[in-house]
Amino acid sequence: FRPFSSLSSLSADEIMLQDSVRKLAQSAISPKVREMDESEHMSNDVISHLFNQGLMGIEVDSQFNGSESSFMSVILAIEELAKVDPSVSVLCDVHNTLVCTVFNKYATDPQKELYLPQLTTDKIGSFCLSEPASGSDAFALQTKATKTDNGYILNGTKMWITNAAEAQVFLVFANVDPSLGYKGITCFIVDKDQGVQIAKKEQKLGIRASSTCVLNFDDVFVRDDQVMGQVGKGYKIAIDILNEGRIGIAAQMIGLAQGAFAKAVPYTYQRKQFGKAVGEFQGMQFAFADAHTQIEAAKLLTYNAARLKEEGKPFTKEAAMAKYYASRIAQAVSGDAIEWAGGVGFTRETGIEKFWRDSKIGAIYEGTTNIQLATIAKFIQREYSD
Ligand code: CAA
Ligand code: FAD
C-alpha cells in the first residue's frame, strides 16, 4: 500500500505498530481472505495471529498481558487490518474498543484480574446491546435481569452480535427494573459456559467471515460480582463506549476505502484500451483524485476524533462525523473502484467487489447514518439555538 499523506504527528511507537500490522495483514491474513469470505468463517489461525501479535488488548495494561498502547494505535490497527479484510478488522475492533475498553474503564480490580488476562491471551469478547425490537432505539431493550440471592437471572434475546460464534466473554445489557425505563439498564459480564445460547448465525451481504448471531438467554444465572459498573448505569456505559467505538468503525471504513483503491488503481495503469493505459485518461484520473481527497478527508476526521479522545477533550460530535463521512466515502470509493477495473472488478477474483459488499455495514452498525446525523444535529442545535 502506498502511504497517504495525512497526519504527520504519529509517534514512533504508533508507526511501528502500523508497520507490524501491515506486515501481518499481508503475510497471514491476505492469503485467507477469499476463502474466509466464501466459507463465512473466521480462520482460527488468523485469530491466533491477532492474539500473538498483541492486537487483542492494545490499550490494556501490561500487567494483564496487554500491549499498553494508545487509542490511536487501536485506530491504526483497525485501519490496517481493514485494508486487507474488514471482517478481521471488525473482530479486532469490537474486542478492543467495545469489550476491553469497558473492562479498562468500568471493571473492579478483581474483574480486571480475572478477565483481562483471558481477553488478551485467547478469549474473544462480544458486546450485546441490540435486540430484535431495539436497534437504533437501543435503550428500549427488553432483556430482563431479575434479582435473586447473590446474583441475577437473565432472560431475553440479543440480536446481531458480532464475534458471538467465537466469543467466550459476553457483555450483556439487561434491565433490572423496566419501570425505571433506561435507568434500569445494567451491564453484566457473562461467561459463555454460564448458558449463552447461539440461536442463529446470520448470512450476510458483507463482512461474511465476521460472525453475527442471535443469542438467547434462558434463565442464565450471573453472580453479583458479574455486574459491570453500577446497577442502573449500563446505559451510560453503552453510549460512552459507543461514542468512542464509532471512531473505530470510521477507521475500518477508511482502511476499506484504501484497500479498494489500492487494488483497482494499479490495474488501470496496466490495462490498455484505445492504445494507452486506461488510468491515463483524464476521466479516470479525476475520479482517482476525487476519491483520494475523500479518503484523506475521512482520515483526518477520524484521526482528529481519536486525538481529541486521547486528550480528554469532547469528541462525541467529531466521532459521529468521522463515522458518518467515512462510511459514506467507503461505499462510494469501493463502488467506483469496481467500475475502474471494468468487468474484472465485478468478479470475485480481484476482491474489489468484496470491499464494496463490506462497506455497506459502515452505515448501519454502531449507530446508523441517521443516528450519527441526529447526534451531530443535536450539537448544532445546542450551539445555534440560543
Ligand atoms: N453520548 C452521551 N450520552 C448520550 C448520547 C451520546 N451520544 N446520546 C444519548 N445520551 C444519553 C442522554 O444524555 C441521556 O442520559 P441522561 O438521562 O443521563 O441525561 C440518555 O442517553 C438518553 O438520551 P436520549 O433520550 O436523548 O436518547 P435516546 O433514547 O433517544 O437514544 C441512543 C439514545 C440509544 C444512545 C441512540 O442515540 C443511539 O445511539 N442509537 C444507536 C445504538 C447503537 O449505536 N447501537 C450499537 C450497538 S453495538 C454495535 O453495533 C457493534 C458493532 O456493530 C460492531
Ligand atoms: P433500525 O433501528 O430498525 O433502523 C432502520 C432504519 O430506520 C435505519 O435506516 C435507521 O437509520 C432509521 N431510523 C431509526 N430510528 C431513526 C430516527 N430516530 N431518526 C431517523 N431515522 C431512524 N449490535 C450489538 O449490540 N452488538 C454487536 O456486536 C452488533 N454487531 C452488528 C453486526 C452487524 C453485521 C449488524 C448488521 C448489526 C450489528 N449490531 C450489533 C446491531 C446494530 O448496531 C444495529 O443493526 C443498528 O444499531 C441499527 O438497528 P436496526 O438494525 O434495528 O435498525
TrEMBL record:
Query: Which Gene3D superfamilies would you find in this protein's record?
Result: Acyl-CoA dehydrogenase/oxidase, N-terminal domain (1.10.540.10), Butyryl-CoA Dehydrogenase, subunit A, domain 2 (2.40.110.10), Butyryl-CoA Dehydrogenase, subunit A, domain 3 (1.20.140.10)
Q: Where in the cell is it found?
A: Mitochondrion matrix
Acyl-CoA dehydrogenase/oxidase N-terminal domain: which residues?
A: 12-121
Q: Recorded E.C. number(s)?
A: 1.3.8.5
Pathway assigned to this chain's UniProt record: Amino-acid degradation; L-isoleucine degradation; Lipid metabolism; mitochondrial fatty acid beta-oxidation
Which InterPro entries does this entry report, sorted A to Z?
Acyl-CoA_DH_CS, Acyl-CoA_Oxase/DH_mid-dom, Acyl-CoA_Oxase/DH_mid-dom_sf, AcylCo_DH-like_C, AcylCo_DH/oxidase_C, AcylCoA_DH/ox_N, AcylCoA_DH/ox_N_sf, AcylCoA_DH/oxidase_NM_dom_sf
One GO location term (cellular component): mitochondrial matrix
Top-rank taxon: Eukaryota
Q: Which Pfam families match?
A: Acyl-CoA_dh_1 (PF00441), Acyl-CoA_dh_M (PF02770), Acyl-CoA_dh_N (PF02771)
Its EC top class is oxidoreductase
**Where does the sequence pass through the membrane?**
none
Q: Name one GO biological process term.
A: fatty acid metabolic process
- Where's the Acyl-CoA oxidase/dehydrogenase middle domain? 126-220
Tell me the protein family, please: Belongs to the acyl-CoA dehydrogenase family.
The protein's name in its UniProt record? Short/branched chain specific acyl-CoA dehydrogenase, mitochondrial
